[in-house]
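Example record

The entry below shows one chain as it appears in the dataset: sequence first, then structure tokens.
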Amino acid sequence: MSIAKQLIDSAAHAGFDAVKFQKRTIDDVYTQEFLDAPRESPWGTTQRAQKEGLEFTKDQYKEISDYCAIKKISWSASAWDLRAQEFINGFDCTFNKVASPMLGHIPLLKLIAATQKKAFISTGMSTLEEIDRVVEIFQNANCEFELMHCNSTYPMKEEDANLLCIPMLRERYKVNVGYSGHESSLLKVCAAAVALGATSIERHITLDRAMYGSDQAASIETSSLIGFVEAVRKIPAILGSGSKTLTDSEKSAREKLRISKES
């Protein structure tokens, strides 16, 4: 909980709009055989001990919810099973997040769409036909959604970003499209995504990449968050309107430097 609050502090201070956690019902997501398998972690020597050690309880999520309210930052959690989504539905979250692996979980998608809360839907590991089906579910439920282009490798090689999928998805589905990034670099890919029209950016964050956890290499350290947010939010202004006009600063330079001659 201490680490979670430090991450919330950093995200809020840097100007992020929201933080997102993950929620799993361990016995629904994993088989008994898997959970009994050995794995060394800070919580024990089995997969079950590791998975349960990473899950927050209802009281802990209540603490997170209250803390985010104090920090004036929204929060939610991506559910990996039906009971986990019902758990999240018990809180006053303003949005839902669909993780890429869940695009084939039709009952879960229908449960999320039925909440009528805006959903951010990551599209990693998916075919267009699979995305078609997901889009249909949310459209039929009249639930607002935003797709998020994503490559589900941790960390992602920059040459695998395939960011031209952002305008492709926007044109195909006529919806806003964001970018969920797992690259180890800080800004290059996200800046290009925003330049291509991404309407939201999601990144994993960490206090220190050397900490325990499989996502650390694909995360941004909190010490870099302020600069990251400032750069991302500046990009629309840098892109401008596309209309070729003289700026005020150009006008004064033109008066001094323009050479005009008629043949």
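Notes for this example: The chain has one domain: 2-257. The chain has a mean pLDDT of 96.
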